[in-house]
Design a protein that fits this description.
By secondary structure, this protein is of the alpha+beta class. 36% of the residues lie in helices and 21% in strands.
Length: 284
Amino acid sequence: MLILDAYFPTGIAFTLAASVWSIALKQPMVILITRAKKNFAAYFPAEKIDGKHRGRPAKYGEKVKLMEIFEQPHLFSKVTCLIYGKAEEVKIVAADLLWKPAGILIRFVFAMTSRGPIVLMCSDLTMEPKTILELYCLRIRIEGMLDMLKNLIGAFRYRFWTKKMQPESRKPKKNKRLVCPAEENIFTIRLCWEAYERFVMLGAICLGLLQMIALKYTDVIWSQFEGFLRTRSREIPSERTVRIVISNLLITNFRSLAPAAILQKIRDRFHVEKTSSPSPEPVT
């Protein structure tokens, strides 16, 4: 299940999603759900004409501007959906229409919520409109996770680089100057890319551990939290709260380490190596 925002409703996205086919399920393995832009238009399938006629039979029928559907309230039905974690009554209707960039039938879901009208696109023509809307509203959890990974964990602050990678501008205008790396440097560059991915995945594991600690040791975290919160927004502590508590515990544990502890041995060895290294000659 691939849920994307309004930046990704392109024909190539639906083509790639349909290209990964499952022989056992007899359907694509990837179901794409994304948000349509307001200026999009779709088409009803053309009516089949009996008999022989000159030229190729028409594929696209009557044109439909998506936002004009909301001007026909009699088409909508009321259902209760979870919209960004809150249950509310919405007006919803779905239609399977042809979309020219993809050239295939796509299920369009038109919903009127408290946040305004929204049009969704789904590559699965059998999925219920209510399910499509609720799945799209779960996308906010991904954005919250990325915010925690970026600002709390620092999972994207890696500084791995290799001189064999071509330098690129932070604000590239066009991709005309992209240079393919040399054949002998591809292995090294691939190792650098793997370092990026492993660093981010370790950050994701750390975030998951913070969430598990918050769920399992809720009372312990709140009892040892020494920060100030004017009001608690929820009973379960946030990842940031858990991180503050664990950081204070680690500092306390480091101070009370026994002389024979592993960390003490590491510090002693580091101190010996540092003092045994030859000191630089004084400059006269």
